[in-house]
Specification:
The chain contains 7 helices and 9 strands. With 233 residues, it is of the alpha/beta class. Helix 1 crosses helix 7, helix 3 packs parallel to helix 4 and helix 4 runs parallel beside helix 5.
């Protein structure tokens, strides 16, 4: 139970898997959370030091049960990365209000449920890291992002409130704005004519989050924005 434990939500084939690989290679045992159990089991076989924990982070009862299992199996997390995301496109007139609510439950409430479960032990130890991955929807609302952007903006503000609360207690909270199209198969298919440097690499995102989780406490970051060098912003 003396191992370093990193808990990552939303472990899919892109950023979540890259984060899991990076923290495992950095000496952590990694608790991987996602709804897709078969995909998690495949990654568990692939990544040494990882363990699969199927979970829908929008369900507080599941979060409580699964995080109890994580602590019992691996130990208390010293790093939490909330990477799970719910998204939808459409104007405020077009979207089903239930879609926005569902995304809010995953993006914002999921962060709350996870953080409330792991933060007390971090505070007791006087150290810990909580990182949420976001995107530019956390900073601006575009016309066809009404089913998504409000939930990411709320997520960022929740993370800031947590940072102001937990920072003086030794727990580093940070928010990463990923201002880019992530390089995964479905985005390559959607943007067939885009050059390679149009995309952001999941492994590069993971490297930056790993660095963020290991900053000296005299120079902690909160808002971190990452984008390809050719991105217009």
């Amino acid at each position: 139970m003396s191992d370093k434990i990193c808990l990552i939500s939303g472990v899919g084939p892109g950023t979540g898997a890259a984060l899991s690989r990076r923290f495992a290679s950095g000496g952590y045992r990694v608790a991987m959370l996602a709804r897709d159990e078969s995909r998690l089991r495949g990654l568990e076989r692939e990544i040494d030091g990882s363990a699969a924990f199927p979970c829908d982070v929008s369900d507080p009862e599941q979060v409580d049960q699964v995080l109890d299992d994580v602590v019992r199996t691996l130990g208390p997390p010293s790093v939490l990365i909330h990477n799970a995301v719910g998204g939808a496109f459409g104007s405020f007139l077009d979207i089903d209000p239930r879609v926005l609510n569902r995304n809010f439950q995953t993006n914002t409430m999921g962060l709350l449920y996870l953080a409330r479960k792991v933060a007390p032990a971090m505070v007791a130890r006087g150290e810990g890291v909580i990182v949420a991955t976001g995107n530019t929807s956390a900073l601006r609302g575009r016309a066809n992002f009404a089913g998504f952007a409000p939930s990411k903006a709320a997520q960022r503000i929740l993370a800031e409130a947590m940072a102001r609360d937990l920072g003086p207690k030794g727990v580093h909270v940070a928010y990463v704005v990923i201002d880019a199209v992530i390089d995964v198969p479905w985005t390559r298919e959607r943007f067939k004519d885009a050059p390679a440097d149009f995309f952001i690499k999941p492994a590069a995102i993971a490297d930056e989050v790993f660095h963020l989780a290991h900053q000296d406490r005299s120079a902690w970051s909160f808002n971190v924005e990452i984008r390809p060098y050719r991105e217009t912003w």
